[in-house]
Amino acid sequence: MKLNIPAFPVDEIENIVFDFGGVIMDINIGRTLIAFNNLKIEGLNSDDIISGHKKFLLDLELGLITPSQFIDAVHTEYPDAKNVNEKEIWDAWNALLQPYDRVRIEMLEKINKNYRTYLLSNTNFPHRVKFKEMYRKQFGENFDDLFIQCFYSDEMHLRKPDQAIYREMMDAIRLNPQKTLFIDDNEANITGAREFGLHAYHLTGGERITDLFIPVIE
Fold first, then answer.
1. Cα separation of 30 and 52, whole Å?
2. How many other CB atoms are found less than 10 A from the CB of residue 141?
3. Mean pLDDT, 10 residues at a time, over the chain (218 residues)?
4. Residue 186 in contact with residue 49, Cβ under 8 Å?
5. Residues 111, 156: one domain?
6. pTM of structure
7. Which of 1, 96, 125, 132 sees the fewest Cβ atoms within 10 Å?
8. Are strands 149-152 and 116-121 parallel, antiparallel or unpaired?
């Protein structure tokens, strides 16, 4: 599979860094918001989850609090939910994770023949456990094996679009930013990547990563 993006310097690209949510796996934040409301955890909105506007959400994404401390924070932030048990909260939190699209996964496996591929995701430990478990159940393999290396915000204690996360990733993989493409569905993350010096493509308007590649004719 080769890149096929009009008006983009595809011939320069040797390495591709993918975002996870909205790129590899579809995310339905509405499902988590509804599930939280049903547990009397009311007042959250989608931007709180995406951008971490609430401190306890940001701290979880940065790996600054443990899952147990997250549960305690939920009970403190939403007193009406004080009797909601931990499993119910985690089920609601993970409800946004949708089944993998097999076509995308198969394409990622083919891309590895032509590009070095990596993952850079703003995520958190409970989501990581769940989406890796979902991958094993659906494909019988380890999710991280799709990529040369995976970079997760909660392990790095950094998050997109902060410049530091791109710098630390590129220092780790030791590749030329000008030969590296970053693909994300969040405009702020794309801007951050470009400011660092990476090529970046903003996945928008219902696009899928399968739209960006074409088969190689051998």
1. 16
2. 12
3. 90 96 96 93 84 88 95 90 92 97 95 95 97 97 97 97 96 95 96 96 93 80
4. no
5. yes
6. 0.93
7. 132
8. parallel
